[in-house]
Design goal:
Elements lengths: L2 H12 L5 H18 L15 H12 L15 H4 L2
Length: 85
């Protein structure tokens, strides 16, 4: 992979340039691929922001079944200014 291809890959994967529908289609395809190689006792953890997490939860319910959901971990975030008080 040359430098230009690497830059294009990084921009696509980490640059938040995806349209929501394209991202969700890509995620669905990947979740199906992941499921095909997971064992019955495997687990999966997703780390997503509040803009897309609820959509991916629906995809995961469809792929893995609603009964497979165990819990949601929510991060408490603060700004730098709040920690300086």
């Amino acid at each position: 992979m040359d430098l230009e291809e690497l830059k294009a890959f990084e921009e696509k994967m980490y640059g938040d340039i995806w349209q929501k529908e394209d991202y969700l289609n890509w995620m669905y395809e990947n979740l199906m691929a992941i499921k095909s190689i997971m064992s019955e006792t495997s687990g999966i953890f997703m780390h997503l922001d509040h803009h897309i997490g609820h959509y991916v939860k629906i995809l995961m319910d469809e792929v893995f079944g609603e009964e497979g959901f165990i819990n949601e971990i929510i991060w408490l975030t603060t700004s730098w200014h709040e920690t300086q008080r």
